[in-house]
Amino acid sequence: MTTVSPYPWRAQGPSLGNHRLSHPPGTWQLAWVHPLQVQEAKNQGSSLPKEFKPTQTIIKKPVQAEKPPRAAFIDPLTAMMASPEDEDALGCVSIPADDEMDGVKSAESRDADWSKSELEALWTQLGQSAMTYHDSTRLLIPETLHYILDKLNFDDESTSRNARLDMLEGRQTRRSNPEKNGLTPKQFGDFLDLVTHQLSNYWTEDKRVQVLRLVIQIAKILGDMDKSGLSGYPAFFFQITEVLVFFGRLVYDRIASKCPGLRMNFTSHDATPQAQEMCKNWLLKIMSIRELVPRLYLEIAFMRCFRFIDDPEYFYKTVLDRLTKSIRGLSDPIAACYLRAFLVRSAFQASSSSHTSHLVSIKRQAWDCLPRRICDCIRRLFNGFSKPNFLGKMLGTKKSLNAVDTDKCPAFVYEHIFAVLSPSLIEGQVSHVSHVVANCAQDPSYSVENLICVFGKVLTNCYSLTRTEKLNVLNTIWHCVMDIHDLHAYLKCALVWTEFAVKQLQPKEINTLLGNIVSQTNSTLSRDGTKSSSDQLPKIVQSLLSSQDSLERTLTLSNFLPLFNTMSKGSQIEMAKILVERAIKDVQEISDPVLSNVLIHLCDILGDSINALSIQDETRQISAFICHVIRKVKFEDDFEQQLKFLTDCRGKYSHLTAVQLQLIHSVHLLAIHTLERANGKISTRIKGFLQACCAFVFITIPSIDPRLTQVQLCIEAAEVCLMCRCFGQAESSLKVLFKTLGELGQAHEANRDLRERKELECTLLGLCSQLFSLLLVVPDNVEHGILYMIRGALNAINRFPWSLHSAHRAELNIRALQLLSVVTWDDYPYHIEGLDSNDVLYGSNPKFVDEVNQISGTVLGQVLDQIQDLTSNGFKKESGRLSWQLLQTCYGFVDLESSEKLVKLAQKLWSLSKKQNELQPQTDRLLQEVKLRKDERATMWKRVLL
Amino acid sequence: MASANPIEIIFDRPSRTYHEGETIQGSLRLNNPTDLKHDGVSLTLNGFLRTFVPAKSAIGNGASKIQSLTTFEEMLLNPGKLPQGKHEVKFQIPIRANADRRALLETYHGVRIDIQYILVCEIHRGILAQTFREEKEIFVELKSEWSKVSETKPYQFHITPDKLEYAKRKLMKHVPEFSIRGCLDSTQCSMGRAVQGTICVDTCTRPIKSVEIQLIRSEQVGVDDPKDCTEVQNIQIADGDVPRSLKIPLHMVLPQLFACATIKSADIRVEFNINVLVILDDDHIVAESIPIDIYRHH
């Protein structure tokens, strides 16, 4: 029994009869060649292969690898239009009211070259790409076809598992219900396989009515699809048209079978009356279908059969003409376009080459009505419109522009034109075009924002406009933009046009624009009551950043801050970071009050964004930003203002330690600068100021977290206070220092981590040495006794819980000895300007010197105890080192003649030092030096050492 | 054996369409699997006009009347025996009206009026055995005699809200603004051809759901009987909201059986109308009714 199949190229076996295949089987090219072209038609039944096994998918990948399916979908009509290289052929698009379509003739000649096989290849390629492109859309099958749908087995694993579950629970299987959810293109392909199988069954059983009914229902799907809002139209279109073509072939074969011995180029006269009768009957049946879409599709599928009853000339003149025009009755432009594509393809297939002139006219008519609504194929059509000549035609003269007014060339067409326009083409026309755009805004059915955006983008890159032109355009367009009520759309346009203004116009205009944006946004937000969550505003701000002007000028635009504040909180923080970072890089010194205001405002926002939940890195980054900004803000000569600023900052950023640190340093710097500038003439005002600075620091230090930093800061503060002649402050600082040391000691005692202890102690060693250096110049307070400060320091140090068996305390004491020695000098090696240190106060008073000696003695005793301790505990190296240091101190600072005990001490120390091998080079050096010395003091030393 | 029908009637014309005065030529093909003993093979052509008048009151059925237009009977084969196998018997039947009757009428299947010509072939097999019977309808066409047949009278129409006639004044408020222009190529339509024209929706403030063209027949049996208008077929011209100012062709092929040339005679009248409908999205319909004359052109 012969079975029929729509897809002859799917035949597996070699049983293709006598037909020579022009392409190998299994490929996508049309394997089945029209029998009438090859040889005489067979008499018995269908000339299709005998064995037919439906494969699973309708469209499968091609065997040859040279033609991979293209990812980008090119709709058939674009493809059928001339390729972009041939610009004249674009005259196929009929722009009404003008004779500028001089391209028609060349189009004709070009179409004559287009062979059927090319078209077929293109068609199949498009079908494949449609399948891959629209893989996820779903199509609902109408109920009339559900009986076929039920036969389809969906091999969905979850279905079977859930089906069992549902059955157990007594529920109806609902999952993956194709009737409710629709079919994917692949599933639809399987479904259509079943449909064609059913069609073949009906046909062989001679149930022509059922065949027709089924085909009508299938064709109806194409008409109803648009109403369900489907975007995957192409995928289903290609599959359904295959079924329709199959049907057409069935009918044709049946009619042809009634004409035995039909020659290749037969005319209607060759057809037998039976064939003609049958053809007419089929035609009548098809023409009486009520619905437009199935009727048109079936008429087109039936096209080839017209040969039996009419001559081709008549056919092309009337029937094709009528069909083309009837498609205008389809309101959905997508469906209409695809129907036209099917028409053209079928017409090509049915025709021979002599009739292409008619086909060209069809194509022109097919393009006669540009659909009003946005159409997928139109968009792609315009990809080919970037050729200058064509655009020159379209926009060249005003006349043609007027012809292409809103009625004939609706706004959305402009939109797509502009998208591919190069700016040079629009230059001479700018004002006219802007008026056209403004007119388009009047059209209530079209939302003009896309057009405005695209227009703006084009103009942004257009560099040869004059200033007046630019302003005019901006004015015109901005009026339209202001009328847009939807905030999102408004902001989209505003963004594009802000970029235009930034690139092309002066800050003044940018400012006005921003002002408008702000007021519009605010009024909309207050009216709607919703928080602006759009990301457009940050984009606008960022576009401002890209301006060629300096950042300063941008930030100082009067409307910048309002714009910034309109953004949502999150975006504000983001933008603030970006802006501050840029500012830090670009701006060296911030003295302009407006700019500093803006930056401070940004810093405030950043500072406020830090809370207990912020991550450490964020805190660090933002603190760094703020510190930078603080450093850069300068108030020129107004130091009081600066101090006020720093005080404000302290209040605002109290939670950021790094910033507080920076503030303290800034205040110190400020004080010193002020002092320098005062040049020795310290007025009351300046003195007050300096005291204020010191007070600031004094207050701020305790809030710094790590105590060690506090210690350091106290020392620094004391230095600065002394330099500023705020003695009281200096003393307080030092007292605080000792207290902090005590607290530090308490914490240190509790700390068991050996490495941390060691680190701390080393740091402390350095700090205390620094302290000693400072204490040299600290004058005594009469109330508190001699060397009160130094004694306090020594007490603090000795009370500190140094690690057991560490040499630090001893080292510090040795350094203290050095200090004490220098304290007795007549003239200290360094002074602080304007401050009388102890050398002046005491003037080497003998009583003073005695006191100092006493203290030294105590200290020395402590050192010797320490050394003893170390030696007895086996830390020979440490003790040796310490002894050497002590010896050095003695050598440098001690007068050996004053006491015999000292000589003995020196000798002992010398012997201890010599025992250490690594100290050998140093001891040798000392020996050398002593030998070479010729003065009196040296004799004593020579006695000791040698 | 009895269930298989051995008779097949083949006509010389596959369309089975004849005119008055012509002769139906054809052959009977008998294919009996076994020997067949019969009492004669007869061939009858029965042409009749059947009219149906519905009851005037609610009770009772309507009256159905059959008038015979042509009757012709012929005994093709005398009683005898047909051996097994295929046999072919040629026949010729003239088509002419009965003597008393007026001219033949065209084949027409309508609601109240039915004109049919049926060719019946019977193999009589006595009282006890089942008679084999095969019938086929043939189609009779008559040439139209009007002198104005070749004239084309195009019909232009322009539908605007003020030209509408309403049953109720109330509906006036809901009428949207619209302007629909169109034309029929001719109000004289030929049976074998299609009714053609164009329609163009200039403006319409409401979206349009569909534009359709409808063929309406109106039948009248007798003078007293009111006209009965029914729809023959409905062809959709446009689907959805059509673009404005665009000419869309109207095209409807007249059906073979359900329409015929306009009949205006004493006892029956069959006339046709074309309705162009524009259905708006709120299911209101704007329609233009155009009376047409159908003739048969040769």
TrEMBL record, chain A:
GO cellular component: endosome
Domain of life: Eukaryota
InterPro entries for the chain: VPS35L
One biological process term in Gene Ontology: protein transport
The keyword Lipoprotein appears for this protein: no
Location in or out of the cell: Endosome
Listed transmembrane segments: none
Positions of region (Disordered): 1-22
The UniProt record lists the keyword Transport: yes
Family membership noted in the UniProt record: Belongs to the VPS35L family.
Name assigned to this protein: Uncharacterized protein
Organism: Tigriopus californicus
From TrEMBL, chain B:
InterPro entries: Arrestin-like_C, Ig_E-set, Vps26-related
SUPFAM superfamilies: E set domains
Example GO biological process: intracellular protein transport
A Pfam cross-reference name: Vps26
Family: Belongs to the VPS26 family.
Entries under PANTHER family matching the protein: VACUOLAR PROTEIN SORTING 26 RELATED (PTHR12233)
Protein name: Arrestin C-terminal-like domain-containing protein
